[in-house]
């Protein structure tokens, strides 16, 4: 099997089609010539890879006899065969070769497996290098540990077939496809010595998020950042279909990759020995290219966009498995995707087939008497923290440094009398972020899809500009705010930004992402996956806490003058609420000072996804800084200045969450007060949304006692909510007074409207809220001799007020005194 | 201004960078040589475009003096300036030139504006061609109508700045970016004579969904389908940033586009006259290329993948606006994105600046005395149904043909005794879809992200295979199911498939999309936008109803043996519920026959998004076909065989929605029945989820009376739900008996588990449900002398049963008789 260096890999001919290569694999063809490995190195490298492949098979099939030291019997086979072989040999091949280059060049490298169900190809080498057993001592490096390692795989209570958080060295699960390059880019930011190897599955490469994330090369600054080495693994098939990229011509594929700004090196074939030579030569070239670009940039201090190297690795799907089964092609076919040989427990022929296949890796040459990998093979893996399963960057909480924080109180605005001045809520936050940035120029970044200025956060550019490595024009100097060392990352892809931020956080840094509310839904699924990742991490004692993902949702539903209906969607919160209470936090600060207080809290927190909802436009200001801090610390509270129930049970509780709803609710209080002065109103404002949920459901939840003391046990509650109204019911359905809770919120009514019109259409406006109160407080009838007359006065006021703002309020004319 | 044909457009030099072109615009450079327009044609074409640009400005600025027949005064200017100029001239330029080619070649063409806020550039030519006034007669083709047309734009109660449903000829709003190519592809499917012009914004081109949708050329069959003509409009800037593609070298951009399989023709410059020549020559070339590819394929009957033509149109942002304002660059800068000259109402200099700019289009030469466009210019637009604002394909409901439907009852399975046989729920649906396909081989398609077989729908391939136009290998013949005329569209991009399906439906056809439940979240935002589109269409009498979007959500949360936590997410339903009740429908058929009945109903329906949740695995069967039809028609009902409350008020209502929850709930009934034979249980199953909501909220909702008669007004209800449990509370919080409703569902607890374990972790299992009943029905204490003993028996049974399935049920040992 070992091959001498006289049999070099052939050169890829640019005009050849994928088909010509893929349908008839054989000796390697590669862009980079050369045979850097000695025959001994080829043999050992191949042995290490055989060991990986053997382990992958063991994980899928075996519950006993882990080293095949006795003939394979049905009782050695797992009851249910689960797991995926298809992509595993390719991943293990890459991992094995990366080990070589890490050792050779002392590279600081982490590994990300983009292809779905790639765990068997990663867990194998992680186990062989010893990092698995260090974290999970019961999966020891001996026969007994090996068996446990096999049995837990895809087994109830065990580990999954993706690179889940349980996988040492993984910060990218690959359960949902498409995010490997953006995660890799985030990990490489501000880690100048790191190379992130990112394997892109050819199935994954069809997803939108992956397709646009080839652009990451326009965001990696060779002076300051590490590098990403993408390895597009074309094994040709998804679950049941060929992949698109595996069936285009070599010309098209190469043009595409060059067009996205990479320099692709091809390694194609199936013959292991020539493939080992080709892969080794290519990886040496890639690392040299990366080092050269970095050297050039760092020695000159001038950042530029290198045409970074990448690899296209074309191998058969299920590489090294049997060529066929029952006359159907297996290796190099979609049939190798999952469990290539089924029914092995009951079918003796199949069992024999499996046994022969497993023996083809010659485990007896790979493991010693105790069942550990032989020392000369283990020596092929790096040691200590250079092992990719033990690299500190991949357990980022351990390398994280706390943010140095300026005092957020100094960025507040003066509010002498609540509700009398206006300010843009987001603008001072921009100033605060500017100074947070100033103090943390190596581990803090701000992300936004071309909306940082639109979202009024542009003060941040005074500290650090928009990251821009492409060409600039003379006119960019006038307000373009572009710089190659900018730390504000803008691209019109919420997917890419979210992925970059996740990668940045998971490697121990901090960040802040602002985006338009309606389009937060673009990353619903990414949020879900990140929340799930954090949830599982919480169950793993060895995973250190990373910084929270801070998401500012702005340009909100209630002011979309010309954007209209498409931009009206406050439903991201409903998605967030479904995720584990251990990792989700939602805040709706109503004004500048409360937003600053909340943002400060979020930036300092760990392990959460913090969602902050705040509109960017001019809004009334309510809270002085001291009041804001007190209010936000409690998360929910009575606003005494808007309440007149001092010490007594009120007639009604009016509650609000969000800026516009708070304004309308306060205006309703004002309208009511003018006519019904002795109506006892308690005004409650909610900043921390989870306060509404019982404390048994969410750690922030109020106890029933506290909830009842705020919301009473039997008085009507009129709640003006920023989002869809039923969300509040979902949080509060267990509360004593839920039957008297009446919520107003966005009800999917809108088009091109003024804010007041929009409020009216969705019945969250001051008039509707006032009417809601009148309709629900029978005592109003007794609030004076002329209650009905007061009601008429109110009615006229409402109509006139609306008219003044150009809004017709026809139904107001039909309001009837309800008693 | 008119230019003679002696001044040809220059040839694009491949090595030149974007920067060289964009920073210093001037005479056109183009890939295609030639000057096909006579000087008179240039002059007229230019005049038509000037009229478009004038209208765009009028929409943004004017509320009086629409034809500038008197000097411009502050009172002519709108109070608030909203709308986007930046992309408009480019869109109008394209539209104007498409008009020419439509007339010249009698092309059947529709137009899609991908760039955000493009409406002013589209509404202008749609108004000029007369199709606007036909639909909206008050926006007549005279001065008065023109003024109304101006005033409504971005005005409260008027129309938005995207190509909203109110826009004649639009089936693509462009409010959320990224979907123009997939929409265009869907529209072109099975419309062999149609060319869909799809303008891709360079901002939009950074999104993931757009980036992968360049692949649509691998799905357009030149024999059977129409063509998509992408026009990448590089105007260089987003809101505040340069775009990535506008700043790479010509070489990279061209390589990228060729790599994605297109033949790009470049048209670059700012000088109008040479640009008119270049664009005309290029469009002639593109239409010729398209026709040639189609001729070749159709004459031979052999489908292949042409390297379809596309256009890269590089023009300045805000083209033809003033070059600068207050010393800052305006034309060709991000400053031209929205309203280029602000403050015109109060600042007399600005007003004058605006007036001069508007006069630069010489409106007096464009409109006649009545205010209509001059006849010789109007003659440049096509007439009748060839006008892109009047093309029937863009109001698809009018060209829709009803599906021919086989009798779904014939695809059912025999269910003699409920709960005794098992079947894979999705498999017979595949057979049914196969025959629906057979009857509708020109207007029905099935979509799935590489999961059609995984989702057990593969019978469909017997009628039509997977659409595949790339290379095939010999081994594909063995089970590959690939064919160039396949009608099953598979690509690993939920975005692209959803976009194709939307485009297909909006042009009057029918379709069915199946996808993994957890990853339906990938298209949350697309669903939102489509639901919003349908909601607005319902308010427009001229929009004919299109077929519903049918989405089968499968591979559900409750069975994810090795996929694990990442694949457990039933939250798409929460997203659906937020959208308008007029367009949303959700079904959870529990077995084969009910799934068939529901699918049949959905395929025949119009105007909705139908979401069907059904797992693909083996499940118990409950309903005979007759019973299924009756049950699904009602949408909710008592299952008498599982109930023993005949004619009486029960002790408890046990309810379920979804396959696994129904199984567990029925098993709980069985467990309870064994020990507490006289406990009166009513079993209610919900197929149509919106039945739970009040009829005031959703047209499917039960009246309170009907709800109360099913769920009682005071008995405990134990509800086993497929999704997140609080969703049921959200639907029912207004119901009389809501306080006694106890819901079990998925609570974000999971990893690698057996279905029973997963159910137990989330407390939706039979044991927990039985305990829930015992804990809530005090009467149980009186159900016999030995109630406590019966409870002990039940406890032992539960523990033993769980043990039998390999699940430990430790908490069962702690169960206490609660009375």
UniProtKB/TrEMBL annotation, chains A, B:
Q: List residues of the Xylulose 5-phosphate/Fructose 6-phosphate phosphoketolase N-terminal domain.
A: 37-398
Which keywords describe this protein according to UniProt?
Lyase, Thiamine pyrophosphate
User: By its UniProt entry, which PANTHER family does this protein fall under?
Assistant: PHOSPHOKETOLASE-RELATED
The Xylulose 5-phosphate/Fructose 6-phosphate phosphoketolase C-terminal domain, residue ranges? 616-817
| Protein family membership | Belongs to the XFP family.
Native species of this protein? Singulisphaera acidiphila (strain ATCC BAA-1392 / DSM 18658 / VKM B-2454 / MOB10)
Under Enzyme Commission nomenclature, its number is 4.1.2.-
Q: Which SUPFAM superfamilies does the UniProt entry name for this protein?
A: Thiamin diphosphate-binding fold (THDP-binding), TK C-terminal domain-like
The membrane spanning regions, by residue number, are none
Q: Which cofactor does it need?
A: thiamine diphosphate
Q: Which Gene3D superfamilies match?
A: 3.40.50.920, 3.40.50.970
Gene Ontology MF annotations: aldehyde-lyase activity
Biological process terms from the Gene Ontology for this record are: carbohydrate metabolic process
**Which Pfam families does this one have?**
XFP, XFP_C, XFP_N
Q: InterPro entries, per this entry?
A: Phosphoketolase, THDP-binding, Transketo_C/PFOR_II, Xul5P/Fru6P_PKetolase, Xul5P/Fru6P_PKetolase_C, Xul5P/Fru6P_PKetolase_CS, Xul5P/Fru6P_PKetolase_N, Xul5P/Fru6P_PKetolase_ThDP_BS
Q: Which residues form a coiled coil?
A: none
This chain's protein is named: Probable phosphoketolase
